[in-house]
Every structure is written in structure tokens, then in C-alpha cells.
Amino acid sequence: MWVSHLSLSNFRNYKNAEIDLNPGFNLFLGANGQGKTNAIEAIAYFTNLSSHRVSQDQALIRTDCESAIVRMRVQRSERETLLEFQLNKALKNRAQINKSPAKPRQLTENFSTVVFAPEDLQIVRGEPSVRRKFLDQTQTLRNPHFSALISEYEKVVKQRNALLKTAKIQRSQGFEKPESIVTTLEIWDARLVELGVKIWRARIQLLHALKPFFENAYQQLTNSDHQLSAELITNDISNFVELSDVEIQERFWDALNANRASDFARAQTSIGPHRDDLELSLNALPVKGYASHGETWSFVLAMRLAVAELLKKESTAGDPVLILDDVFAELDKSRRDKLFCAAQDFEQTIVTAAVADDVPKNINWHVVHIQKGEVIPGEVTNV
Ligand SMILES: Nc1ncnc2c1ncn2[C@@H]1O[C@H](COP(=O)(O)OP(=O)(O)OP(=O)(O)O)[C@@H](O)[C@H]1O
Ligand SMILES: [Mg+2]
Fold first, then answer.
1. Is 11 close to ligand 1, i.e. is its CB under 6 Å away?
2. Which of 75, 147, 186, 211 is the least buried, fewest Cβ under 10 Å from its Cβ?
């Protein structure tokens, strides 16, 4: 799939902008702070209805405005679809597909992107929650029902923790654990195990599916035979990647039972997919703390490229749009060229750069010059 036109109205620093795009390679070119990332953020928003930079929609609405509107014309095979979302400060957000009202979620069924941005270094350097989010957002792109499973599971963890807290308060007031609390806890435990095993299975399968693409992308980018690994780890259940669902279920129950007293003491659920981490290593050493800056950058870029290749292979709706924001700063010429070689596989790639000298010259670029939240008229040229 590819985006043929983007309209922005009161989105970030754009008042009104109309941007034409081509299939193949597109370049958003402009000095720092002009609105390049803002424009790709608008496109990427259609993928999972959230910004890749901020968790609150509020920041996306132009200062002093009540709402922002983003429209996009998307080409899939021979079909053209008009997608629109309206972000409102005071009211609920609204969506339209081909000018008819739609549920915002339906936008995501019609479009997908894979974005690589400097923030992605947090996948290596940040907290485990960043790595869980990477896994879960990727799995949701493969199977939109997965996000409902995650939300349901998170609700169960919250309710179980609330119950443990109630028990803790009652204990501090001199009451013994009442029977009703023990019975309710058993219900939450059963639900935790049921949903947790499904999440683990999906995460394990996702990593398995990504592995060959990940290794291939890293090899393609770096021309090296480094050993890569991205392995799911969880508290108190060792080697669980190799277990069957029934075995995982049994170990989950064992771990819950073994930790019940401390869960009561801390009013926290200490076992489950909400505590997972992804162990990332290069040549058997953790990427965090050992890999060089350039290696880390290539590692994360290879993870994103692997996601794009996997979606391309599995999707019937066409390739995801590949978006590369500020990717050049850390890559030497050889890696830049190799990245563009890999990107040629996709129907559309959108790249941002502050100077034209940063991007390879031997590519037929469709260039959009951006300045102070405006597209400079008549300046759509090749580099
Ligand atoms: N809600 C908003 N309303 C108005 N302006 C905003 C809003 N959010 C961000 N901006 C402005 O947008 C500009 C940043 O745009 P953007 O991040 O797209 O820059 P960029 O062209 O990608 O720059 P760089 O090359 O440094 O990455 C900043 O000047 C910021 O103040
Ligand atoms: Mg930027």
C-alpha cells in the first residue's frame, strides 16, 4: 500500500498543508524543527491510533486550537481509500472512511506503517515495558484482536492487585484473611493463567516468526556474521519458551502458589506476562552496556526492518509503508546504502532528513521541502 496524499489541518505546527506523495522513495527535507517528524507522525497515527512519540493526543493538536484533522488517500492494489481522523480536545475523537463515519479502530484495518525513529533506541536502553510494548504493538499489527487480550489481562492484574490491597488493609486493622477474599482471588488467578498463557504463546510465536527476518536484516545492514538473539524471559519460569501450553499453565500455577504469601504482603502480582522482558544480545553479550552505539542502532533498525518484512509476508492488504525518521546521523555510508537496498522491497518508503547530502544520490527521490509547518510551493524536486 502507499499514501498518495496527506492533508493536515491544525496538526502540531501545521495550520493547513497538502502533501502529495509517490510510490517508492519520498524525502521530507527541511532544517531542524520545521515539521518533518510531525508529518510522519500524522501518517503513522493511522497504524495504531497513537503517536509514536507521545502517549497523549493533546500534544498533536495545534496550540490554541480545539481540534486537528488529518486526511490521507491510500492506494491498495487498484483501490483508493480516503481515511480521516479528527482529534478533539473536549469531544471524542472521530473517524471517517471514504467520507462516511467509522469507528476509529476501523482506520487501522485499512493501513499500516513501520516506523523507525531515534526513540527506538529505548527498545534496547529503556525499561522492560518498552520492550513489551514493542512486542505487543507488533503482534497487534499481525492480529488486531491481540490488543483486546492485553487490555483484558491488564484489567485482571489491576483487579487482583486491588484485592490484595484490600486484604492488606484489613490485615493492618487486625482482621485475618476473610474467606471471601481467598475465593475471589482464586477466580482472578484462574483468569490470570488463562489469559497469561495466551499472551505468552503469542509473544513466543511472534519472536519465532521474526527471527529469520531479524537475522537477515542485520546481516544485510552490517555485512557481518554477528550472533543475534532476542529472547523472552519471565520471572520464576525458566526455559518457558520450550514448554507446551499445558506445561506453561502448570508452572504458572506453581509460581503463583509459591508467591502468594509475598503477593499478599506486597499487594502486587509478581508473576505473569506483565513482568516479561526481552533479553537482547549480540555475540552472546547483552546489547545494553556492551554493544557500540552504531551496533545498537543497527540492531534496533534490523528489529524494525524484520517487523516490516514479516508484515509484508503475512498481509493481504499490501506492504506496510516504511518510515525512516532521522536514520542517517548514526549510519556510515556503507550501512546507509545497504538500508536503502533493503527498503527497495517496499511499495513506499518515507524518509526525513535535514540536508540532502545525507541521503544516497542514486535513488529517484520524490522530495517535499518543509519549512515552518508549510510545504514550500513548487519545490517538489529530486535531490
Ligand atoms: N501542538 C503543537 N502546536 C504547535 N507547534 C507544535 C506543536 N507540537 C510541536 N510543535 C512544533 O513543531 C516543531 C517540531 O517539529 P518536528 O519535530 O516535526 O521537527 P523536525 O522537522 O522533525 O526537526 P528535526 O530535524 O530537529 O527532527 C517544534 O518547533 C515544535 O514547537
Ligand atoms: Mg524530526
1. no
2. 186
